[in-house]
Amino acid sequence: MDVETAVGLVKERLGIRTAVRDSYLTAIVKGVITELEDEKGVVLVGTNPNHLLFVCDYATWRYQSRDSKEAMPRHLQFRLHNLMIHAGGSK
């Protein structure tokens, strides 16, 4: 998974045009990728646009909800469950 591409897409979605938050957004994207691969058992394929967009959407939600106690939105839960089922549940 290309972290730079994912960070660029997250920035576009958030409307961020400067590099001021790049290190923070990069850490979020890397954290999401690590969580998906190590904890959820999802094998991310860098050339799969569905995987890339899910990482971007998940990272965007993480950034926007950093001080919120609300649960993950239903659409992200649904997509995550589908990725996990497709991956066979775990490694």
Could you describe the 3D structure shown?
By secondary structure, the chain is an all-alpha fold. The chain has one domain. Helices cover 66% and strands 0% of the residues. The chain is globular.
Overall geometry comes to: globular
The total count of strands amounts to: 0
Structural category is: mainly alpha
Query: Beta fraction of the residues?
Result: under 5%
Helical content, roughly?
A: 55-70%
Number of domains: 1
* Amino- and carboxy-terminal Cα gap: 18 Å
What's the structural blueprint in terms of helices and strands?
Layout: H1 3-14, H2 22-39, H3 49-64, H4 74-87
Outline:
This protein has 91 residues and is mostly helical.
Provide tags for this entry.
91 residues, mainly alpha, 66% helix, globular
